[in-house]
Design goal:
Shape: globular
Largest sheet: 5 strands, mixed
Structural class: alpha/beta
Oligomer: single chain
Number of helices: 12
Helix content: 25-40%
Distance between the termini: 17 Å
Bound molecules: shikimate-3-phosphate
Number of strands: 27
C-alpha cells in the first residue's frame, strides 16, 4: 500500500444497484493529445471541439503553450490553437502522467529541432523511453534518457534527421507516432512497420492537417519534409472510458445503459469483441462519423459471462481495457486466459501485478505470467484495494465493488482525473454506488 501522504482521495463502493439511463462519457484522450499537438505546429488556427479537459491532456495543452503555440479556451472543451514554429521553452516541460504526451512530443520536437527537457509525475518518470530514444537516435536525433532508460528526456536542437526504415518490436502507437512526427522534419521517405496494428489516430488525423502518408498493411510511409495546415477537429467519446460503464452494466443485474456516440475505431474496440465472446449483451447502434473517426451508441444490458481464452492477436487493440476486462473475467463463470500482453507491465503501473494483487484481496484466484494472467471467475468479496496510482485500475475496481458481497474501498483514486474527470459523479447518476471519501 502507498504511504498515507500519497493516497489522495478514495472510493467506497456499495454493492447493488443497476446501471440505467443514457450517458455521454468524456472525449477521447489519445485524439485530444494529437489534435492539440498537431494544431500547435500547423500553419493557421485550428479549432478543437470536445477536447478532453483532463489532467493528461491539460499537460499537453500547457506544453504546447510553453513551446510557443497560442492556445485559447473558447468554452468548455472548445479551443482555438494557433500554430507556431516551436521554441525552446527555457524550463522543463511537465507531461504529468501522460506517456502519450511525452513520447509524441519527443518525436515532434526532435523533428522540429527544438531543445527541450521532458519530465513527468512519479509514474511517468519510471516508464521506458529507450523505445523512442533509440529509433529517434537512428534517425540522427539527439534524445537522451536517464541511465535507467527512463525520463527525463533531453532533446537537443541542431541535429539533422534522416529518413529511416523502422521495424518496431512492440505494437505501440506512441512509438509509431513519435517516429512519424519526427519524419515530418526529414528529407525523404520514412517507413514504420509494426508487428500488429496499434491505434491509428495519428494516421487518420495527420491527413486532416494536410499531411500526405500511406498505410499498407502494417507499414506507414511518410515522405518529409511536410508542414501541417490548420483544420477543425471534433473529438469523439473515448471507448476506453466507456469500457468501465460497459462492464459495470454487464455485471450488475437489471442494468440497461446506453452510452452515446462512442468512438468505434477498429484499432480501439477489441474489448467489445472480448466481452461479446464472453456472452455480453451489447447492441451497437448505426455507425456515424465524428471527424474521421467512426462512432455509435452502445446499449448494454446485464448478461451472464463465461470465461474465454483471449486470442493474442486481439491484444494490441484491447490493450488499455485489460484492467476492466479482468474484472469482467473475475465475474464470469470459468477461466479466462490472457497471454501476449507483456506491455501491461509498463503502463501507468504494472497492470498485471496490480490487478492480480487487488483481485486476490477480493477473493478471486489468479495465476500471473510474465505476459499475461489466468483468472478463475468467482464471487468478489468485500475489501480494500489500491489503484497503485493508476486511473484505469481505480475505475476497474469500482466495477468490482458494484457486485461484491460487501463494500469495497479503492485507495488512491485522485489519478482518475488524468483521463476521466467526473467519473464517480457520472457513475452515481446512473445508479452505480461509487462514493468519493
Ligand atoms: C496510446 C497508446 C497506447 C495506450 C495509451 C495511449 C496513444 O500506448 O496504452 O494509453 O495515444 O498513442 P502504447 O503506444 O505504449 O501501446
Amino acid at each position: 500500500m502507498p504511504p498515507a501522504a500519497d493516497i489522495g482521495t478514495m472510493y467506497r463502493i456499495t454493492p447493488g444497484g443497476a446501471l440505467r439511463g443514457a450517458i455521454d462519457v468524456p472525449p477521447d484522450k489519445s485524439i485530444s493529445h494529437r489534435a492539440m499537438m498537431f494544431g500547435a505546429v500547423a500553419d493557421g488556427t485550428s479549432r478543437i471541439w470536445n477536447f478532453l479537459e483532463s489532467e493528461d491532456c491539460q499537460a499537453t495543452r500547457d506544453a504546447v503553450s510553453a513551446l510557443g503555440a497560442t492556445v485559447e479556451r473558447i468554452g468548455p472543451g472548445d479551443y482555438a490553437v494557433t500554430g507556431a514554429s516551436l521554441q525552446a521553452p527555457g524550463r522543463p516541460i511537465d507531461c504529468g502522467n501522460a506517456g502519450t504526451g511525452m513520447r509524441l512530443l519527443a518525436g515532434l520536437l526532435a523533428g522540429q529541432g527544438v531543445d527541450a527537457t521532458l519530465v513527468g509525475d512519479e509514474s511517468l518518470m519510471q516508464r521506458p523511453m529507450r523505445r523512442i530514444a533509440d529509433p529517434l537516435g537512428r534517425m540522427g536525433a539527439d534524445v537522451q534518457t536517464a541511465k535507467t532508460g527512463c525520463p527525463p528526456l533531453v532533446i537537443g536542437a541542431g541535429a539533422t534527421l534522416r529518413p529511416t526504415v523502422h521495424q518496431l518490436e512492440v505494437a505501440s502507437a506512441q512509438v509509431k507516432s513519435a517516429l512519424l512526427l519526427a519524419a515530418l522534419g526529414t528529407s525523404g521517405l520514412t517507413k514504420v512497420t509494426e508487428p500488429a496494428r496499434s491505434r491509428d489516430h495519428t494516421e487518420r488525423l495527420l491527413p486532416a492537417f494536410g499531411v500526405s502518408l500511406t498505410v499498407e498493411n502494417l507499414t506507414i510511409r511518410l515522405r518529409g519534409p511536410q508542414g501541417l495546415k490548420a483544420c477543425d477537429v471534433r473529438v469523439p467519446a473515448d471507448p476506453s472510458s466507456a469500457a468501465f460503464f460497459v462492464v459495470a452494466a454487464t455485471l450488475c443485474p437489471g442494468s440497461d445503459l446506453t452510452i452515446r456516440n462512442v468512438g468505434m475505431n477498429p484499432t480501439r474496440i477489441g474489448f467489445l469483441d472480448v466481452l461479446e465472446a464472453m456472452g455480453a449483451d451489447i447492441a451497437r447502434g448505426p455507425l456515424s462519423h465524428v471527424g474521421n473517426e467512426p462512432v455509435c451508441d452502445l446499449r448494454v444490458r446485464c448478461a451472464a459471462l463465461k470465461g474465454i481464452d483471449v486470442p493474442s492477436t486481439w491484444v494490441a487493440r484491447t490493450i488499455d481495457e485489460f484492467p476492466i476486462l479482468f474484472i469482467a473475467a473475475a465475474g464470469a463463470a470459468g477461466m479466462t486466459r490472457v497471454r501476449g500482453a507483456r506491455e501491461l507491465r509498463v503502463k501507468e503501473t504494472d497492470r498485471l501485478a496490480a490487478m492480480a494483487a487487488g483481485l486476490k484481496t477480493l477473493g478471486i484466484r489468479t495465476a500471473l505470467y510474465d505476459d499475461g494472467i489466468d483468472i478463475d471467475g468467482g464471487e468478489f468479496g468485500a475489501g480494500t484495494v489500491t489503484s497503485a496510482g493508476d486511473h484505469r485500475i481505480a475505475m476497474s475496481f469500482a466495477a468490482a465493488g458494484a457486485v461484491a458481497s460487501g463494500p469495497v474501498a479503492v485507495l488512491d483514486t485522485a489519478n482518475v482525473a488524468t483521463s476521466f474527470p467526473g467519473f464517480s459523479r457520472l457513475a452515481r447518476d446512473v445508479g452505480w454506488r461509487v462514493e468519493d471519501v
